[in-house]
Write a structure and sequence with these properties.
Elements lengths: L22 H10 L9 E7 L2 E5 L12 E5 L12 E2 H12 L4 E7 L17 E2 L18 H7 L11 E5 L8 E2 L6 H13 L5 H13 L8 E5 L19 E7 L2 E4 L16 E6 L8 E8 L4 E5 L9 E5 L7 E5 L4 H12 L5 E4 L7 E6 L2 E6 L5 E6 L9 H18 L13 E7 L10 E3 L3 E6 L1 E2 L2 E2 L4 E7 L5 E8 L5 E9 L6 E4 L15 E11 L18 E2 L20 E12 L9 E2 L4 E4 L2 E7 L23
Parallel strand pairs: 1-5, 5-7, 16-17, 16-18, 20-31, 23-32
Antiparallel strand pairs: 2-3, 3-4, 6-8, 7-9, 10-11, 10-15, 11-14, 12-13, 12-15, 13-14, 18-19, 19-20, 21-22, 21-26, 24-25, 26-29, 27-28, 27-30, 30-32, 33-34, 34-35
């Protein structure tokens, strides 16, 4: 692939295979070969082989509390006196090359876990690129010719460098990388497929999300993990080539003693504490080039706090792009090669802010765009139910894109808001209580029952041909020791988002009812369904979150759109809240109709089988020619035999 990319005279490749790939040879080639690279050059280190864990020197415990090295198994690693090429050693080698201003990419197609657990992939003929873990502690002086031991001897603090580079790893740290029966790495094969199909004109960020989607369809429990270090720009082109879509710009200003950016988790900024997000800053007026870089100290739901890596006056203002890798976007599928796919792809590439990408792999997508006569219909993948449609004229396909993008943007925004989470939060989630309190039916005695979630099942009893209303309250309690702002957000099945409550709640043992006080507050099931699911998210924050920025109206399912980009779409994000410490709690309320009290109208008996309307998984073979008026069974969602 590299030889096909351009002038072969500009390419210098060093390959070590099998017996040549000893630990010393790999280190020597890294330093002598890649070490020739100068500023403006592109350097690539690719490894395909086994990965394994080794008990690390005790001195590294302050960096990695699990006490493990994650290393590359060289040809002689497991011979007497041999060692893997540990991640700490690879970091030093990378720093030596990256320090010259080189565009450095590292691809590792190997396992980073010693787990020998068999999973579904084992039955598909896939093998893990892993070998046995070594539990003997490795001496500090054996790391890269005593590099770290010399630091200790000189009285210097032990430090593991992070040279500017991008890592393209086959899987996450706790996962196994797979290879096919013909010894091809699933990740390497997928990476080549992605870049070859695009002609290489993709950014690393785009390759990341496409590889993740493709690998997920080929191997279970393997997700490629890309990581940037030293402010490497994830939106730069693959191996120095021209990149694809441009990154979205955000505003940065100095407010109340801190630098803040109007981007947060809802825009795709990672909240993983192990992946600190980074920004590249530019003068707001567009004059000049890059002003510098910044790290995000605190990622809020909608705004974030920064630490600039350069000196700037407090009255300066900047625009910024996310230089580290974003979270994966929502995937959309359209029929490959169709006019709607080509047109939609161009539209998505022209607007990177939507958070959507197109895929040829149908199974990887959440939503599908299909052509039906003079309409483009949007469905959930695997479902025939139309969410909405837009008018489509094959002679002018571009005219359908604004309303289609508006619709897809609302779906993506709904998904992002629903998945909003902050694993790096300093708030103690155990001190924020969030429950669904089921109340006794009207006119009946009994005590209220608390359901802590994250999933609650309420039972609606038939009253004639209709299900009963189920009354319940959603309540919260703040025992954090400080005032918190509590917001309750409702996510409707029609992709609407509504803030039901947004108030400060003092710390204490008192419960606050967020929903369920009003006479019209209840849960129910439509007459033609057997269950409904209502999703809620509680956001607890040290500062008030502007909830209206999350809100969006329900979609009118099945309707056909036309008109401008803003018609029926999600609200555009404007000014955001201050950076805050925050966390989220999720609760899904599933209201089900009791099957033992369904009326005869709810039963259908075609061809000697009995089913419940809207619930095709509940079936039973019968010999009667007509549906029974009363039958009993176990409402487990599995086939059951009614007693007549």
């Amino acid at each position: 692939y590299l030889r096909s990319c351009g002038d072969p005279r500009a390419l210098a490749v060093e390959i070590l295979k099998d017996g040549d790939a000893t630990r010393d040879n790999v280190i020597r080639a890294f330093r002598r070969h890649l070490g020739q690279a100068q500023a403006g050059d592109v350097a690539l280190f690719h490894y395909s082989g086994h990965g394994a864990r080794w008990s690390s020197a005790a001195a590294f415990r302050e960096f990695y509390t699990d006490g493990k090295d994650e290393g590359l198994v060289c040809f002689d690693s497991r011979r007497p006196g041999g060692y893997d090429l540990a991640d700490k050693e690879l970091a030093v080698l990378i720093q030596e090359v990256a320090a010259r201003g080189v565009h450095l990419a590292v691809t590792l197609d190997c396992c980073h876990s010693g787990s020998g657990t068999r999973n579904a992939d084992a039955f598909r003929g896939l093998r893990s690129r892993v070998t046995h873990e070594v539990f003997d502690e490795r001496p500090l002086e054996t790391y890269l010719d005593g590099h770290f031991a010399r630091q200790k001897e000189l009285g210097l603090p032990l430090s593991i460098p992070a040279g500017r580079h991008i890592l393209l790893a086959a899987c996450e740290r706790t996962q196994q990388a797979k290879e096919t029966p013909d010894n091809r790495g699933v990740f390497t094969a997928t990476l080549l497929e992605v870049v070859q199909k695009s002609g290489g004109a993709l950014s690393y960020a785009e390759i990341f999300v496409r590889c993740r989607a493709a690998v997920r369809t080929r191997a279970d429990d393997q997700l490629p993990q890309f990581e940037t270090y030293g402010h490497f720009d994830a939106w730069s082109g693959f191996l120095g080539r021209a990149g694809g879509r441009a990154a979205r710009r955000y505003s940065v200003a100095f407010e109340k003693g801190e630098w803040r950016a109007d981007c947060g988790a809802i825009h795709g900024v990672p909240t993983d504490p192990e992946r600190r997000a980074e920004l590249t800053l530019y003068p707001e007026d567009g004059a000049g080039g890059e002003a510098g870089t910044a790290s995000l100290l605190q990622v809020g739901a909608q705004r974030s706090v920064l630490q600039l890596d350069f000196a700037a006056a407090p009255d300066a203002r900047f625009s910024a792009t996310l230089s580290s890798l974003p979270v994966a976007p929502q995937w959309v599928w359209a029929e490959p090669g169709s006019v709607q796919q080509v047109t939609l792809l161009r539209a998505l590439e022209a607007d990177a802010s939507i958070g959507l990408s197109l895929t040829d792999v149908a199974e990887a997508a959440r939503y599908a765009v299909k052509r039906q006569d003079a309409r483009l219909v949007v469905t959930e993948q695997g479902s025939s139910d139309v969410i909405q449609a837009v008018q489509f004229d094959a002679a002018a396909p571009g005219a359908a894109m604004p309303p289609l993008l508006s619709l897809l943007e609302q779906l993506a925004q709904w998904e992002r808001s629903l998945s909003l989470a902050n694993p790096a939060s300093q708030l103690d989630a155990s001190l924020i209580d969030f429950v669904c309190t089921e109340l006794p039916p009207d006119g009946r005695s009994g005590e209220a029952l608390d359901h802590p979630g994250p999933e609650v099942v309420l039972e609606s009893v038939n009253q004639g041909a209709h299900g009963s209303e189920v009354h319940a309250k959603l309540r919260a309690r703040n025992r954090s020791g400080q005032m918190l702002h509590i917001m309750l957000v409702y996510f409707s099945p029609d992709y609407g988002v509504q803030v039901l409550r947004n108030d400060p709640v003092p710390s204490g043992d008192a419960w606050v009812t967020l929903y369920g006080d009003g006479p019209d507050d209840y849960f129910w099931v439509d007459d033609d369904e057997v269950e409904s699911i209502d999703r809620f998210k509680l956001i607890a924050s040290t500062e008030r979150v502007d909830g209206f920025l999350l809100e969006q109206q329900d979609l009118a399912r099945g309707q056909t759109r036309s008109g401008t980009r803003t018609l029926g779409g999600a609200r555009k994000i404007g000014r955001k809240v201050k950076g805050e410490e925050w966390l989220t709690r999720d609760l899904a309320v599933r209201t089900v109709r009791r099957l033992d009290e369904l009326s005869a109208a709810d039963w259908v008996s075609p061809n000697g089988r009995i089913t419940v309307k809207g619930h095709p998984s509940v079936t039973a073979s019968i010999s009667l020619g007509a549906p029974p008026s009363a039958s009993r069974g176990v409402a487990s969602g599995l086939p059951f035999a009614p007693a007549f």
